[in-house]
Amino acid sequence: SYLSKATKEAGFTFFGRVFALFFGFVASAVIARLLGPDVLGVFVLAWTVVMAVSILTTFGFEGGFVKYVSMYASQGKPREAASVYRLGIRFGASAAVIGTAVIILLRRPLAVTVFKESRLESALLFIAIAMLPYTLTRLQAAGLRALKDMKRSIIGAEFWFRVPRLALFLALYALGLRLLGVVLASVAACVASAIATYIFLRRSGPFLF
């Protein structure tokens, strides 16, 4: 029944978010322990730049998907829902590419002049690559939430980011990569999460494509 399904979805959402928070805390503690406060601080600065730029690249489409894609889908208007989704994805992807270019071009003044941390320059060069998959993950996860598929939204955006990042970081750290290791692991995890949310969304809402 609808009530039973809604209850299961709510339960999975709750426990999924609890797991994501717990695993995220453990993973962050492990990464912080291995990197130390100095190197970790450089990575946090680089990741903060990506998150700040992503506010512009998503441009409110996350909330728009949840509202309008959900509304059109429930009204039996798949064409309108698809139009909203495609507009958001096109805008987000284009803005993310521009954001990537801006970060790469401005990496030196950001590192040396703004943050006064020369190591940040190389970190920004690589982590800028995460801009596109990170933006797509956020938008695609919002599309899944719009279709009331909270389970896949959490698995795609949370599990497929946090678990691969920790696993890849540990592997790269074992090879002697510290700052570059956590940066490359984060980029790869963003790609994995973007692919996962894309696959899940095609299964939940094929009419959007």
List the helices and strands in order: HHHHHHHH
Helix content: over 70%
Portion of residues in beta strands equals under 5%
Regarding quaternary structure, how should these chains be classified? single chain
Q: How far do the termini sit from each other? A: 28 Å
Q: What structural class results from the helix and strand content? A: mainly alpha
Instruction: Please state the average pLDDT score.
Output: 91
How many beta-strand segments?
0
Major sheet characteristics: none
User: Helical stretch count?
Assistant: 8
Overall geometric form: globular
How many whole angstroms does the radius of gyration measure?
A: 18 Å
Low-confidence stretches: none
List keywords for this structure.
8 helices, single chain, mainly alpha, 0% strand, 209 residues
In short, what is this structure?
The chain has 209 residues and is an all-alpha fold. The chain is built from 8 helices and no strands.
Outline the structure in words.
The relative contact order is 0.15. The longest helix is centred in the N-terminal third of the chain and has 57 residues, at about 1-60. Helix 1 crosses helix 7, helix 2 runs parallel beside helix 6 and helix 5 runs parallel beside helix 8. The model has no long low-confidence stretch (mean pLDDT about 90). Helices cover about 90% and strands about 0% of the residues. It has helices spanning about 1-60, 60-75, 80-105, 105-115, 120-125, 130-145, 150-175, 180-205. The protein is globular and about 55 Å long. It is mainly α.
Furnish the topology, listing elements before pairings.
Elements: H1 2-58, H2 61-74, H3 78-105, H4 107-114, H5 119-127, H6 131-146, H7 150-174, H8 179-204
